[in-house]
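Give me the fold.
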Amino acid sequence: MKWTRVLTVLVFGMTMTMFCSAAHAQQNLKIGYMDLSKVFDSYSKTKEFDAELEKAHKQYEDQFNKKMDALNQARGRLAVLKDDEKTKAEADIQKMQKDIQDFAQAGRADLTRQRDEKIREILLEIEKVVSDFAKKQNYDIILNDRVLIYGSEGMDVTDQIIQAINASSSSK
């Protein structure tokens, strides 16, 4: 009987110790938050990607404009053609219009796909840097400010994350 009481008290004591330790650990959480949009926009790779995307968009626009110029020239010549030549020219113009529509649709889809892939890649890199930063700085939680209703300025680690991510980018 004595052993049962001793064992019960010992198990109860150990359970209370573990519970108190867990509660104490939760009280000492180190939490930070960051402005994801600011980190994304300040990341050097984002700026590089914006320049690449702008260049690709400019090339697409140049090609589109050349195709439109050719179409407009073909339409302009249509008025001076003979009837038998007009029929063939109108068919050619319709084909050119269809080609331009297909080109525009494919170009937009390609640029959107490139943008989406690069954004996904950049966000994964940001996630890794934030994770590494949190581990090195002993943070238990780092939140995205989009889900945060309030956070004191002392918990904002945005600028530190920006420095970390740009430093990791330049070292690669």
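Residues 2-170 form a domain with the Protein Binding, DinI Protein; Chain A fold (CATH 3.30.910.20).
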